[in-house]
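The pair is set out directly below:
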Amino acid sequence: MYGRVRTALLASLLLSQLSCAGRDQPAPVDRLYQGKSFLDFEAGSLRQESYQVVAGDTLYSIAFRANVDVRTLAQWNQLRDPYLIVPGQTLRLATPQANQQGIDPVAKKEYRDTKPQQNNDKKITPTPRSTPSPTRIEVAHTGEIFASNNDIRWQWPASARVITEFSTAEAGSKGLDFSGGRGDPVYAAATGKVVYVGNALKGFGNLIILKHNDDYITAYAHNQQLLVKEQQWVNGGDEIAKMGDSDAEQVKLHFQVRFRGKSVNPRHYLPRGKQ
């Protein structure tokens, strides 16, 4: 189950093409597969309060599309790890609604149960007492705070030279390729959360994906060694991998920046005067 979750997340976050720098054309499976594409997994694409599960969905992919932490989504729907869901199941995608007075139903029940009952049999002179404090309703918080677009501090993911530039051509590179030696450090291009670590996607080898906010992610492919784990937070400039040639014809780092699911030229974000 976890392997399917990771694969779904990978497909959701990354690629409209399965081509990497150096490929003459996209992998055949990209043309033959008629199921969900990366567009189906765009962050923020689910904005309704509920969602009916269909074949191929995972709680992780639904959470990504609804911009909700998967653990929070599981809590709202009373699901436990490994978060099994089935087609036809309806999931809540929003915080349980409060009643018209703005009081959570559970808190309302507790208030009703503790509210003094009116005594119609005999009038009793009230005894002065202090006014009770209003009921306080705790709000769950995931603790995830991402930088706004203007506050992201971009830096180069490798010190090696660039050997392949970004291209908008259909068969062109969707990122930058850096040459280097086996074991050279690969750095996080900005502060973010590790949302994928693995090698489930053919053509990218050992891959890491970082989420920087709801708009931006970065990908680091062909690594020899992966130094981070999923759900881990890293700072910009932290070493996250060792350069390698996994699923590549030579030792290199293939680096992508994606804005709302679309590949963009990393040079538009990385500092100038280098490389």
Q: What stands out?
A: The two ends are 42 Å apart (CA to CA). Helices lie at 2-13, 28-32, 59-66, 70-76, 105-114. The first helix runs from residue 2 to 13.
